[in-house]
Amino acid sequence: MRYFGFGLMILASLSVLALQNWFALLAFIPSVWLAFRKSGTQLNTDEGIYREYTSSFGIKRGKWMTIENYPDMALIRGREGFKAYSRGMIELSDSELVYDIYLLTKDHRSKLILKRFKDKESAQLEGRILAEKLGLDWREYSPKVSARTRSRRRR
């Protein structure tokens, strides 16, 4: 979404400058907001609190909460990618492995992403250091399967 904002901002600027289209200024204002908007998770290791924030123009907003509900940390492998189709329905896709550090509840059913890495070694090193700082257990991700889910799988 961020790149879309930058692209729209450039198109609106060119439209105003080259074509003297002053109506394009209306597209410029939301494009600036989209270009400089960001979201993420911020962690305060000294106080053991976190917040999920959205940031506009560098000002972060979000409620600080304690990490007491998250006694474990784990590294989870995932994929990040995109898929696009041309007018002739020819597919263009790309994906790559990513490694995410998560805070986990006791039963590993709820998780909160902290940071994303491209390589496993640096993710494990950073995760272990962070878990030690926060006094959390570094564990293998293994969510507990409920009895209801087990019964559905047997069918």
Report what the structure shows.
It is a single chain. The chain is an alpha+beta fold and 155 residues long. It folds into 2 domains: 35 residues, no CATH class; 103 residues, no CATH class. It is 34% helix and 37% strand. The longest helix has 18 residues. 10% of the residues are buried.
Blueprint (SSEs and pairs):
Blueprint: H1 2-19, H2 25-35, E1 37-44, E2 49-56, E3 59-61, E4 65-66, E5 72-85, E6 91-104, E7 111-117, H3 120-134, E8 137-138, H4 147-154
Parallel strand pairs: 5-8
Antiparallel strand pairs: 1-2, 2-3, 2-4, 5-6, 6-7
Helix pairs in contact: 1-2
- Quote the distance from N terminus to C terminus: 42 Å
**Topology as a string of helices (H) and strands (E):** HHEEEEEEEHEH
Tell me roughly what share of residues is in helical segments: 25-40%
| Sequence stretches where pLDDT stays below 50 over 5 or more residues | none
Radius of gyration: 21 Å
Question: How many individual helices?
Answer: 4
Q: Report the count of strand segments.
A: 8
Share of β-strand residues: 35-45%
Tags for this entry?
alpha+beta; 2 domains; four-stranded antiparallel sheet; 34% helix; 4 helices; 155 residues
At a glance:
By secondary structure, this protein is α+β, with helices and mostly antiparallel strands.
